[in-house]
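In response to reviewer comment 3 from the previous cycle, which asked for concrete evidence that the modeling workflow produces usable outputs, we include below a single protein chain processed end to end. The sequence was submitted unchanged, and the resulting structure tokens are shown without manual editing.
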Amino acid sequence: HTLSPYYNIQSSVFGFPARSQFLLWVLTVAREHWDSQQFHNLAVPQKFGPTFFTTTFVEYNDTNIQMISQDYLVLHTDRSILYQTMDGTWLGDDDWEEREEMNKFLVRKEEQKRKEQEENIEEDS
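The workflow returned the following structure tokens.
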């Protein structure tokens, strides 16, 4: 999950126990969502991306499901076990505005990381 700026659940990294009722529910909702009239007019995140996954999680409302911050599994941080580039491969040729916004976000994240590393070096000195 992430808080600012999106406040959502990343849909590319997740795991479930065997016979997960939540996963069964997500797949059931996904089938209904696929068959809906508005599905093909939605953007990718709303189809089966973070928007869809976050919505299913909130609606399922099970406090026993544990969340792990994107700092460990998605973003490139000093706590990362792995990270993803988020290069926008789902964007089409007509999505330049979204691609540009994503590139700006990635640059800000890298600048923030570099600044934090510099601050840590200064603190250690």
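The CA atoms of residues 14 and 72 lie 12 Å apart. We consider this sufficient to address the reviewer's concern, and the full set will be provided in the supplementary archive.
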